[in-house]
Design goal:
alpha/beta; Rossmann fold
Length: 288
C-alpha cells in the first residue's frame, strides 16, 4: 500500500541514489580532466629538491640582479605569465611555486608563513640563483616577500611590494575569498567547480599557455587545499609581517596595479608596465 510515509521513503532513496550517481560522475569527470591537464601542462621549469620535497622554479632572461616573483594568494608561477616575459627583457626573472601549489610538491609539514620564506631561501641556494635579488611580491605574496627580506636581509637588494594588504583591516573581498577557498577543494573533487568555474575568471588576460595552466590548477583540489590553508592563516601572517623588521637601508618600492582584487593575477598590459617600472627603479640606485 502506497502510504504517504512509503512514498516519502522511496523518494528519499531515489534522491540519495541520484545524488550518489551525480557525485560519482563528477569525480570521474574531474579525474579524467585532471589527467589530461597533467599531460597538456608539464612544468615549464625545473623541480629542485630542498630536502624532503621538490619546488618548481622557472627562470627566463639574462642579467642581474635577478628578479624573484612571489605569487599572490592561490597563485603559482604561471600566474606571472603576462609579467615575467616583460621583465625578462630587462634581466633574469625567476617565478616559483610555493610548497603544495602549482607544480611544487607539498611538504609533510603544515603551513607556516615563515617556513615559506625558509623554503624559498633553500630553493634559491640549491638552484644557485645569484643573490642579492630584487624580490617582488603581490598581495599575500607581498607579505611573504617582506618576511623573506626580514629573515634573509643579505639576499635582497630591493623589495617591491605590489597591492600589499593592510595588516590591520581585511577588505570585504579578502573575507569573501577566504570563505570561497574554504569550500573550493571539496567542490573541485566532485567536479562541481569545473562545471561552474567561479575561480577561473581570474585568469582572463593571461597568455594562452599561462592561462591554461593556471586555470587547470585552480580546478585541482590539491592546489586549492593548500591555497585554502594559506589564506586561513591570513591574520596570523599579518601579525608576523607586523613584527618583521626590515633593514633600514633596504630599498622598498610599493606599487598598486590597476586591476588587482584578492584572488586575481596581474594580466593587463598596465600591470606589466607597473612591475616593469618598479624593477627599473629598483635596479637604479640613483633614483632613490
Amino acid at each position: 500500500m502506497n502510504t504517504p510515509a512509503t512514498i516519502i521513503r522511496r523518494a528519499v532513496k531515489v534522491g540519495v541514489a541520484l545524488i550518489g550517481t551525480a557525485l560519482a560522475a563528477g569525480m570521474t569527470y574531474q579525474g579524467v580532466a585532471t589527467a589530461l591537464e597533467r599531460r597538456d601542462y608539464p612544468p615549464p621549469g625545473a623541480r629542485i629538491s630542498i630536502g624532503d620535497h621538490q619546488l618548481h622554479l622557472y627562470c627566463v632572461g639574462d642579467g642581474s640582479p635577478v628578479v624573484v616573483l612571489e605569487a599572490p594568494e592561490a597563485g603559482l608561477s604561471s600566474a606571472w605569465g603576462a609579467v615575467q616575459p616583460a621583465l625578462a627583457r630587462q634581466t633574469r626573472v625567476c617565478a616559483y611555486d610555493r610548497s603544495g601549489l602549482g607544480w611544487s610538491e607539498a611538504s609533510g609539514l603544515g603551513f607556516d608563513a615563515t617556513r615559506a620564506a625558509d623554503e624559498l631561501h633553500a630553493l634559491l641556494s640549491e638552484a644557485a640563483v645569484q643573490r642579492p635579488v630584487i624580490l617582488v611580491g603581490q598581495s599575500l605574496g607581498a607579505w611573504y616577500a617582506q618576511l623573506y627580506a626580514s629573515r634573509f636581509p643579505g639576499d635582497v637588494s630591493a623589495l617591491i611590494l605590489a597591492d600589499r594588504p593592510d595588516t590591520h583591516t581585511d577588505s570585504l573581498e579578502t573575507v569573501a575569498l577566504v570563505r570561497r577557498l574554504r569550500w573550493a577543494p571539496w567542490l573541485a573533487r566532485t567536479g562541481v567547480l569545473r562545471l561552474t568555474g567561479p575561480t577561473v575568471a581570474s585568469t582572463d588576460g593571461l597568455p594562452p599557455a599561462a592561462r591554461g595552466a593556471t586555470r587547470a590548477f585552480l580546478l585541482r583540489p590539491d592546489h586549492l587545499a593548500r591555497a585554502a590553508r594559506e589564506v586561513s592563516q591570513w591574520r596570523q601572517t599579518a601579525g608576523l609581517v607586523e613584527a618583521a623588521p626590515l633593514d633600514p637601508g633596504l630599498r622598498v618600492i610599493a606599487v598598486t596595479t590597476a586591476t588587482h582584487r584578492p584572488g586575481t593575477f596581474p594580466a593587463a598590459n598596465a600591470d606589466s608596465d607597473t612591475f616593469l617600472r618598479a624593477v627599473i627603479d629598483a635596479r637604479d640606485p640613483a633614483r632613490h
